[in-house]
TrEMBL record:
Keywords: Amino-acid biosynthesis, Disulfide bond, Lysine biosynthesis, NAD, Oxidoreductase
Known catalytic reactions: L-saccharopine + NAD(+) + H2O = L-lysine + 2-oxoglutarate + NADH + H(+)
Quaternary structure (record): Monomer.
Protein name: Saccharopine dehydrogenase [NAD(+), L-lysine-forming]
SUPFAM superfamilies: Formate/glycerate dehydrogenase catalytic domain-like, NAD(P)-binding Rossmann-fold domains
Ranges that cross the membrane: none
GO biological process: lysine biosynthetic process via aminoadipic acid
SMART domains found in the cross-reference section: AlaDh_PNT_C, AlaDh_PNT_N
GO MF annotation list: saccharopine dehydrogenase (NAD+, L-lysine-forming) activity
Top EC class for this record: oxidoreductase
Cysteine pairs bridged by disulfides in the record: 197-241
GO cellular component: a single term: cytoplasm
Active site (catalytic residues): 77, 95
């Protein structure tokens, strides 16, 4: 049987430095007999030479449209908007299965070109659990951004532009420095603490020096009594990491914040879950997604009351591109190794079935 080819494309989104394949996972695929092509890319956190060193074939930047039709293309984020037909098999996050803006025109490109989409968000194991996700580093980076915003607020400032960190160590050092050496004395509450994002947030708080007792870890059991929760107002930083799938009472609302007046300790809310425009958003105190250039949005707290800001960045793992890529790619690796048997391997078979179903819905919606 001939070698299974796989083509790592560059990412075209601003600030995106993560990669679906890392030099480590590329090497493991090469060892298993894959042919790995890697587009040259200066934006990626890993140098081209790191891929070359493990034996991958380097190809021109953004040249995947010219790749042979039988070579599957792997990437992370959406492709730039276009109506060009897609002839290849693409493995990526496409964000077009939940009727997001423009969903049917993305799928129409596959319909036109005859290509196939395996959406990374929907690759699941036998228990219905995602095989690879970025949650841990989203929570970790979100908690770091929250601590930086808290430190800025204490100095009467607003947190400025955030930049991806070279590695976890650099992030932890920067956060500790902003807090004057350590996070000791800061109090935080993480809701959704048993999930991927929540575990990441808790770990960051531990690593920057918060006392164990000052990290409140809540999940389903603690919120079962129903919000709004006074406990949130009594910490410095609140990080929301829940996976919202049913309407729930608000965790926090403006009435409660205004009523607390000057007796509120809470300074920063980090909404990692980012259900910003969801009508059931449990934190209805803000209504925009913030960005790396403007990481915080102020909450209207009433005159004379201490400030409160929200961070609602929806691509937090980008702040830690190296570790986030390594973890994601190594979690994806067992499924990639099964890719040559995608006609029978459930993880790929189910993902293709879902694609065919969504494609049919898009064909209908677009009147094709
Ligand atoms: N902002 C970002 O950059 C970013 C990146 C990745 C994921 N996310 C989002 O973060 C959210 C969480 O993702 P995850 O991978 O950690 O999910 P997960 O399923 O691993 O964890 C979610 C946790 O929330 C808990 N939970 C759910 N409802 C709750 C409630 N009402 N009260 C208390 N706890 C509750 C669950 O028990 C679970 O422990 C998702 O919405 C995801 O889309 C955001």
């Amino acid at each position: 049987m001939s070698a299974q080819p796989l083509w790592l494309r560059c990412e075209k989104k601003e600030f995106e430095r993560r990669a679906a394949l890392t030099p480590t996972t590329a090497k493991k695929l090469l060892d298993a007999g894959f042919d790995i092509y890697v587009e040259r890319d200066e934006q990626r956190i890993f140098d081209d030479s790191e891929y070359e060193a493990v034996g991958a074939k380097l190809v021109e930047h953004n040249s995947w449209p010219k790749a042979a039709a039988n070579i599957p293309i792997i990437g992370l984020k959406e492709l730039p908007v276009s109506d060009a037909p897609l002839i290849h098999t693409h493995i990526q996050f496409a964000h077009c299965y939940k009727r997001q803006a423009g969903w049917s025109s993305v799928l129409a490109r596959f319909n036109k070109g005859g290509g196939t989409l395996y959406d990374l968000e929907f690759l699941q194991d036998a228990n219905g659990r995602r095989v690879a996700a970025f949650g841990y580093h989203a929570g970790f980076a979100g908690a770091a951004a929250g601590a930086l915003a808290y430190a800025a607020q204490k100095k009467g400032d607003t947190l400025g532009q955030l930049h991806p960190y070279a590695n976890e160590e650099a992030m932890i050092t920067a956060v500790k420095e902003a807090l004057g050496g350590s996070g000791k004395g800061v109090k935080a509450l993480v809701i959704g603490a048993l999930g991927r994002c929540g575990r990441g947030a808790v770990d960051l708080f531990k690593k920057i020096g918060l006392d164990e007792d000052d990290i409140l870890k809540w999940d389903m059991a603690e919120t079962a009594k129903g919000g709004p929760f006074q406990e949130i107002l009594d910490v410095d930083i609140f990080v929301n990491c829940i996976y919202l799938n049913t309407p729930i009472p608000h965790f926090l609302d403006k009435k409660q914040i205004n009523a607390a007046g000057k007796n509120r300790r809470l300074s920063v809310v980090v909404d990692v879950s980012c259900d910003t425009t969801n009508p059931h958003n449990p934190i209805p105190i803000y209504n925009i997604n913030t960005t790396f250039s403007h990481p915080t949005v102020p909450v209207d707290v009433g005159p004379g009351n201490p400030p409160l800001s929200v961070i609602s960045i929806d691509h937090l793992p980008t702040l830690l591109p190296r570790e986030a890529s390594e973890q994601f790619s190594s979690d994806l690796l067992p499924s990639l190794l099964e890719f040559p048997n995608r006609q029978t391997a459930p993880v790929w078979l189910n993902a293709e079935k879902l694609f065919r179903q969504k494609l049919a819905e898009a064909v209908e919606a677009e009147g094709l």
